[in-house]
């Protein structure tokens, strides 16, 4: 019985990464991590994951080569420079595994405002992705007006979109408009 100390995302990532290793490297890594307790190829992957103190410790092992981590990141759709050093690839892999994928679901990514004339302004911010690659962030304002014939139906009066590309993953999408800026968009 093995005790798993990694998160589900780290566990799945480590398994995928270990599948990219050669049988020789896998057995050598198992010998190092488990102190030669496991010798069968069937148990090696589970043992390596179970006996590793953390995902970072596993990624920094000598047998987990830079090329293997690079290949894993490419397979996951993460774009990194080809000349990246191993420590940079390890950091990027850990960032991938620690991200929850829900950066758009923050209170800073939504703002609403109602005008005395009946216009409702909704500003949202979010991330733009192509598959698993974050391409940038967007900020969009919708001006909605209630249909006078049907009180439960809204029509789009105006739309304003701002896109910022090529940003770092650490930047969360945030609505930068304050209430006055939103009102000025309506009066233009």
TrEMBL record:
Q: Which domain of life is it from?
A: Eukaryota
Q: What is this protein called?
A: Uncharacterized protein
Gene (name only): C3orf38
